[in-house]
Amino acid sequence: MSESAYRRPYPALAPYATGRLAVGEGHELFYELCGNPQGRPAVFLHGGPGSGAGIHHRRLFDPAIWNVCLFDQRGCGRSTPLGSLEANTTWHLVADLERLRLHLGFPSWLLFGGSWGATLALAYGQAHPSRVDGMVLRGIFSGRRQELDWFYRDGANRLFPDRWERFVSVLESHERGDVVAAFHRRLTDPDRAVRARAARAWTDWEAATVTLRTPAQAREENAYADAQASDAIIAFARIENHYFSHSLWLEEGQLVDAVPRLSDIPAIIVQGRYDVVTPAATAYAIAARWPRADLRIVEAAGHAFAEPGILHELLEATDRFGAGWRD
């Protein structure tokens, strides 16, 4: 399919409601509701962990059909306190999701998540399968050691040796055997300048690998590239590194092994063939264990949701669920 045949996102729209929800331990979540207040409930789970929901994410759903909740996870975006690592784990976020569902009065909902958002969708779905109508997942990351090692130890660096060298240049040579731990020390340093330099390097490495498009296009599409190390960028890097430093509080292989818990839930998995951040092997392994999962591999695509082929399949997926697809 040529790029001219790919679908474009739905028109920009404003939320019809916004709110804040106290979830305990000093955290307060920002959320917004978009689309049709009487429509099918859905929740958008942003990536990172540590980024936040944006206005472009509202455009992935037909606003006449869907009642979409977008929210910023603990420490992210418009939630407070920004960048906080206290009481901020995968299982806190799973509990927050269930608390948010109850607060909104949704009996169940569609989960839409890419990258870390797909991780959180799997964790929530395995904990609360009866509350999930379906899932749209992109670029699945399950948190296994092999996936983290690929991106932060030995794997992606072989494809991008020049960009890897820039990434680790902020570290001493003796620290490069455990990049995640070395960055953790810097991202939790009391000196903001130390945190900012580490955050800049951490986010630039992701920006340099996230898409098949040219580096210039990737910089335009990535919220963190070529920007100063703002508080939001530091928060993103701190939270993401915090999660990876603790293996996402998951047992090794937990989300893959527990896929049978999702056997009654339909899913559409969208995966870029040349995704360097979350390689296709994980999506393939999960789909193989999930009889109701429809794996859609996009040939000329990497990791970013905004790549034309990925975006096309995501829009097709939300429309398919919106039309009542269950098989």
What does this structure look like?
The protein is α/β, with parallel strands linked by helices. The protein has 2 domains: 3-145 and 251-322, Rossmann fold (3-Layer(aba) Sandwich); 146-248, no CATH class. The protein is 38% helix and 17% strand. It contains 12 helices and 8 strands. It has helices at 90-104, 116-127, 145-152, 156-159, 161-168, 179-187, 192-209, 215-221, 231-245, 254-257, 280-288, 308-322; strands at residues 17-24, 27-35, 40-45, 66-71, 109-114, 132-138, 267-272, 293-298. The chain has an 8-stranded mixed sheet, sandwiched between helices. Strand 7 (267-272), helix 11 and strand 8 (293-298) form a beta-alpha-beta unit. Helix 1 (90-104) packs across helix 2. The longest helix is centred in the middle third of the chain and has 18 residues, at 192-209. 46% of the residues are buried. The model is unreliable at 214-227 (pLDDT under 50).
What tags apply to this protein structure?
327 residues, alpha/beta, Rossmann fold, 8-stranded mixed β-sheet, 12 helices, 17% strand, globular
Strand and helix map with partners:
Layout: E1 17-24, E2 27-35, E3 40-45, E4 66-71, H1 90-104, E5 109-114, H2 116-127, E6 132-138, H3 145-152, H4 156-159, H5 161-168, H6 179-187, H7 192-209, H8 215-221, H9 231-245, H10 254-257, E7 267-272, H11 280-288, E8 293-298, H12 308-322
Parallel strand pairs: 3-4, 3-5, 5-6, 6-7, 7-8
Antiparallel strand pairs: 1-2, 2-4
